[in-house]
Amino acid sequence: MSDIKEQIERMMKLKAGIRNKVQAKKTRPEGDISKRDSSALRRIQNLRNQFNGVDKSYLEPAKSIPIIDSCDVLVVGAGPAGLSAAVAAARAGADTMLIERFGCFGGVISTVGMETLGWYRYEGTQDCSGIGIEMEKMAARMNPNSVKFAFNDSECLDAEMFKIVADQLVNENGIRPLLHTFVVDAIMEGKIIKGVVVECKSGRMAIEAKRVIDCSGDADVAYFAGAQIRQNKKKDAMGMTPVFNTSGVNSIKFKKHIQKFPATYADWSDGEWKQETTGKENGLKSPYLSKEFKKAQIDGVIPTNLGREGQNTIGGTWSGITDAGEATNLNLVHLKGFDPLNVRDLTQAEMLGRKNTLHALAGLQHAVPGFELAKIRNFGMTIGVRDSRKIIGEYNLTRKDVLGQGRFIDSIGIFPEFVDGYNILVLPTSGRYFHVPYRCMVSPDVSNLLVAGRCVSGDNTSHAAMRNMMACCVTGQGAGVAAAISIREKTSTNNVNIIKVQEELKNQGVRIK
Ligand SMILES: Cc1cc2nc3c(=O)[nH]c(=O)nc-3n(C[C@H](O)[C@H](O)[C@H](O)COP(=O)(O)OP(=O)(O)OC[C@H]3O[C@@H](n4cnc5c(N)ncnc54)[C@H](O)[C@@H]3O)c2cc1C
After folding, report:
1. Would strands 67-76 and 96-99 be described as parallel, antiparallel, or unpaired?
2. Helices (H), 70-209
3. Cα of 159 to ligand 1 centre, how many Å?
4. Which one of 129, 385, 427, 441 is least enclosed by Cβ atoms within 10 Å?
5. What ligand 1 atom has the least distance to the C-alpha of 471?
6. Is the pTM of this model over 0.85?
7. DSSP characters over 316-332
8. Is there a single domain that holds both residue 10 and residue 117?
């Protein structure tokens, strides 16, 4: 049966409230799945694997914990996806709570320091619309000293200011927040999620919810709830980065240097690895530093061997350069081969990342005009993770979908043809775009749970598109609206009437087709 015919039939059934058993075989991405047992036992097994088969255990006594709150829609994780989900659900009329493990909202933006929400937006881009664009504009409006991305019309969000922007979004939309709160388990009734267990300074407690949206980036809630997930092997996963910011930069001198010797996207492929592009990207200017670090290595300022068999590298992008002499969002130190879901790997990566940042700083001071007197202003609050768990959803987005203008009847938004990761770079200068299907946020294993952000279902190339912050906002808003509509219509999120979801998304200013 053709894809479109199949979609129409599915759509008719959806409208009639009938849902087929998922054709997992057909839509499951191939090659990179670690199949997991969807039982609670897998958590113990995974821990044992992480800690070298340790066989000692402690039998934790069962205890009663207080249910401290309940709500319609509970959003876990307040990155671009979680913020969008919470705002969208609240605007669609749901009593919405937003839980975040750190002390601020914003996710990778405010906790890692990643400011480039719309950097892909070169001339010719058919962009998405909705809360992501609203956040970008709001951040620029609220910061009189906001700076633009060097080579196109997108904003560099100020990561620190964004904490305040996000506070305002939460307050203005009547979202009930809980910061410093870590979700550690899912409350299940059979296959239906009923809430979550959290840990925080107040202790261990439970929160009940009619619908839960997992925006943790790592699909934590889906994993706790027993949903099937996949994770790339360490050697195949995208690397982690400790993003840092410097002060003491002579911005005039640096900008002159960049004008004279601009890097292009062709420079991203610098011999250490080959990058696939469509060719049209290669000549575009890019805020990229790589040759400078090679020079510093040749001159003996930083070691030629950064260790771990070439898995540690220095070179990458910068974004904000202020007149006050700050260079922010320095995305230069890359560490591959660590598992971001293994606390020992995380510990090592944080420490090694800081050590290699000193090498990066030495390279900047030595070889980049304007950085001679630069010093580290700060690191992000945490190392940045690009790649961890993804759910196996009702539909698994594919390379063909994101690079072939995928069209879906259950579209909850569009995203331009922008792919950045796994050695592929495609910038959306052609006006091409794809539909984001609702089903990539739905786990067939758990009812009333939606997953939005970088952990939606799909293969690696689709991850390289969907992990981008603006795409995370698209899925966040779609999930928030769908959760609210499913409550209003008294259906589960797995059977929600997609037409009604699309109507509400359009009311919220989202482009669906
Ligand atoms: C170094 C780096 C550079 C990048 N560069 C770009 C770029 O230039 N442009 C771009 O668009 N994208 C970029 N990305 C990708 C992008 O930032 C992420 O994919 C995106 O932020 C994911 O959004 P999210 O909302 O799904 O998750 P996140 O932004 O990761 O937010 C998840 C939130 O959930 C919280 N959380 C996690 N687990 C729990 C739990 N159990 N309980 C409670 N809270 C929890 C986290 O603290 C976090 O705040 C980059 C990523 C990295 C790491």
Report:
1. parallel
2. 80-91, 131-142, 159-172
3. 13
4. 129
5. 11
6. yes
7. EE--EE-TTS-EEEEEE
8. yes
| Neighbour tally for 330: CB within 10 Å | 27
8 part of a folded domain = yes
Q: Residue 323 and residue 271: Cα distance in Å, rounded? A: 34
Give the range of the structural domain holding residue 492, as residue numbers without chain letter: 3-51+64-233+388-507
Distance from residue 388's CA to the centre of ligand 1 (Å): 11
290 and 223 belong to one structural domain: no
State the distance from the centre of ligand 1 to the C-alpha of 14, rounded, in angstroms. 32
pLDDT by position in tens, the chain (length 513): 345 556 556 555 554 444 443 333 344 443 344 444 445 788 888 888 888 878 888 898 999 999 999 999 999 999 999 999 999 999 999 999 999 999 999 999 999 999 999 999 999 999 999 999 999 999 999 998 889 998 888 999 999 999 999 999 999 999 999 999 999 999 999 999 999 999 999 999 999 999 999 999 999 999 999 999 999 999 999 999 999 999 999 999 999 999 999 999 998 886 666 789 999 999 999 999 999 999 999 999 999 988 888 899 999 999 989 999 999 999 999 999 999 999 999 999 999 999 999 999 999 999 999 999 999 999 999 999 999 999 999 999 999 999 999 999 999 999 999 999 999 999 999 999 999 999 999 999 999 999 999 999 999 999 999 999 999 999 999 999 999 999 999 999 999 999 999 999 999 999 999
Residue 512 falls inside a structural domain: no
Q: Which of residues 321, 355, 379 is at a domain's end?
A: 379
Neighbours of 279 (CB within 10 A): 7
Task: Mark whether 274 and 339 lie in a shared domain.
Answer: yes
Residue 325 lies in a domain: yes
The answer on 416 and 321 residing in a single domain is no
CA of 412 to the centre of ligand 1 (A): 21
Shared domain check, 40 and 167? yes
Residue in 74, 112, 114, 456 to alter for ligand 1 test, most ligand atoms within 8 A of Cβ: 114
**Number of domains comprising the chain:** 2
CA dist 231 and 429 (Å) reads 31
Are residues 317 and 249 both part of a single domain? yes
By most ligand atoms within 8 Å of CB, the mutation choice from 469, 474, 475, 477 for ligand 1 is: 469
Output the residue whose Cα is nearest ligand 1's atom 14. 468
Q: How far does residue 274's CA lie from ligand 1's centre (Å)?
A: 26
